Amino acid sequence: RVQLVESGGGSVQAGGSLRLSCAASGSINCMGYFRQAPGKEGSWVAKIYFGGDIKYYADSVRGRFTISQGNAKNALSLQMNSLKPEDTAVYYCAATGGPYVRCAVDSYGPSRFGTWGQGTQVTVSS
Asked: Could you read off the pLDDT of 12-49 as tens digits, one per residue?
């Protein structure tokens, strides 16, 4: 079910930019984006552990995407620059209240994040 308020997404040409936003309530210590395209394995895009501002980026997006805490508490922003067609996917915001820095590593899987957004479509054309 939808537990986070998620916004952003859209359609852009390759090389363009989009910004995704997500807002949670309650005690949240770690948030991130998980993306999935039809017929492909889902994967983490980026995550942030608020305590210490620890960040994770997938190799495929490092240097192009920036994840950060939003202006409000328990808010998340993902700035996506230099978008590529392979970035096309549904992007799901996720959050956990667990106070563990290890949430911001790739192996800390989606099952450990109990709060999710509805997903937003990002489409990048050639």
From this structure: 999 999 999 999 988 889 999 999 999 999 999 999 99
